Amino acid sequence: MSDTRRRPRSAAPAAAVLLAALAPPLRGGDQPQWGERFTRNMVSEERGLPAAFDPGKNEHIRWQTMLGDETYGTPIVAAGRVLIGTNNARPRDERRKGERGVLMCFDERDGTFLWQLAVPKLGGDPLRDWPSAGLCSPPTVEGDRIYVVSNRGEVMCLDINGQADGNDGPFLDEANLLAAKDEEPPALAPRDADIIWTFDLRKDAGVHQHDAAHASILLHGRFLYLNTSNGVDSTHRAIAAPEAPALVVFDKETGRLLAREAEGISARTFHCNWSSPLLAEVGGAPQVLFAGGDGIVYAFAPLAAAPPAGAVATLAPLWRFDCDPAAPKEDIHRYVSNRRESPSVVKGMPVFHKGRVYVASGGDIWWGKREAKLTCFEPGGTGDITGKAARWNYVLKQHCCGTPAIYNGLVFIGDLGRRVHCVDAETGVPCWVHETRGEVWASPLAADGKIYVGTRRGEFSILAAEREKQVLATVMLDGPVFSSATAANGTLYVATFSRLYAIAAPR
After folding, report:
1. CB-based contacts of 358, cutoff 8 Å, min separation 6
2. Residue 349: CB partners within 8 Å, gap ≥ 6?
3. In angstroms, what CA-CA distances link 474 with 6, 38, 466, 471?
4. pLDDT per residue as tens digits for the range 226-250
5. Which domains does the chain have, with CATH numbers?
6. Average pLDDT value for residue range 393-421
């Protein structure tokens, strides 16, 4: 359960006034979560973004800063802060050394380091908290609150000001939580994170996370929706916690677990639950969409109210769409390491756009078939809608990890076959394919008439978001790019394994 140790109530009003004074206001150009609000479309309304940049010549570089040496988190920009998950290979605090998952917070204006959440690794089985992976989950921000999942599978609410304005509570045990095993807990300092509440998915929801926690939290009203990263055990041939939920709901104010799915997704998961949920308006009503680790997109009715104290509600299922209906459905783990036949998985997020859902699926990168495709379908109805909802499929070259960007009637997606694809959103007919020199793990960002996308080799491409292919620029960066670019307040943020760039045209 969440830790709700409370300080004296008399301190709360004063702290609230101080918090309001310190926290900058949320601006319209912020990017407070991964992808477009609710729908997860990888687009931005920003204008005036550069069509080229050159770190070597400091061309269009507002600022840059060092991260760890493996960065998978996507930068999030809100309330004057830039937040990104990385590892602890270059410690910002000499008191907190060793392997950790780190959420770094920088000043949006000039990249000044403000504070960090530095969580020790789980230890034990490396397949539960992969070495050097760091903190992979992009945070979600609302006002002065940050919602994120740590590398240890702890759902957290953080104060956007860190400890600089004091330890606000109700959680007050940061010193012990952030201390490594057998380490004397260092005293809290202004550059440490301030945890408001925390919930351990492993201990309190029975989750067996695999490889890493990698949830992007969907915020809808007072409710937080997130995937649990529940997956296989170390043999890769069995689900360690088949009864554990794949999708859960929390109260954003208290950290109380309110609801979970009960569709048996975990028991049918081939590798892990990678994808994060989104919100769609279908038939005039909101629906929570979630792509499970079984390759099926599920729709649930959003939670209308919190259940009674002590109870955990079950999310009401609405419909489901199978991304790969011909794939094996029984005894699925006997297909592990089969590169010709296997179940399909979804690693990126589905996107809802103009009444349709766009989703990339296919064989697992490490253990499944070498196939992938982009699918478009029209959601609605009840039960299994696969046969009647499908509109088109577009075959990708190889495995795909990304979330599509739908922009100007076009869909953009990259794959591990070293290609960026542009297809017609209505028909799925290809418009063009751009070959890169590295695998595309990141999701493309569409903004200001351009497509921004990096590769595992460190090649960063800027393409025109048009039906005719036009390469605007190709930039070789200092290392691999696994995270997606973010645009906010006139600036493009690009992270390599070891560095974060804030890129903007002259003002």
Report:
1. 350, 351, 374, 375, 376, 404, 406, 411, 425
2. 34, 35, 40, 216, 275, 276, 277, 278, 291, 403
3. 53, 31, 17, 8
4. 999 999 999 999 999 999 999 999 9
5. 26-503 (2.130.10.10)
6. 97
Q: Which tens digits make up the pLDDT trace of 323-338? A: 999 999 999 999 999 9
Token output for 106: 């920088």
Amino acid, single-letter form, for residue 147 = Y
| Cβ 249 vs Cβ 223: under 8 Å | yes
Cβ atoms of 130 and 108 within 8 Å: the answer is: no
Evaluate if residue 3 carries a pLDDT over 90. no
**What distances in angstroms separate CA 75 from CA 5, 21, 49, 58, 374, one per listed residue?**
31, 25, 17, 20, 25
CA-to-CA distance for 298 and 13, rounded, in angstroms? Answer: 42
Residue 506 — pLDDT band, cuts 50, 70, 90? confident
- Mean pLDDT for the stretch of residues 460-485: 98
Q: Strand runs (DSSP E) across 378-478, as ranges? A: 383-384, 390-395, 405-407, 410-415, 419-424, 430-435, 445-447, 450-454, 459-464, 471-476
Mean pLDDT over each residue of the chain, to the nearest integer: 94
CA distance 342 to 332: 7
List the Cα angle 412/416/420 in 5-degree steps. Answer: 25
Lowest-pLDDT range of 20-29, 217-226, 386-395: 20-29
Question: By the 8 A CB rule, do 498 and 67 touch?
Answer: yes
Q: Do β-strands 313-314 and 257-260 pair in parallel, antiparallel, or remain unpaired?
A: parallel
Give whole-number Cα distances, 270 to 125, 323, 371, 463, in Å: 19, 14, 15, 35
Residue whose pair of structure tokens reads 């240890």 in the numeric block = 152
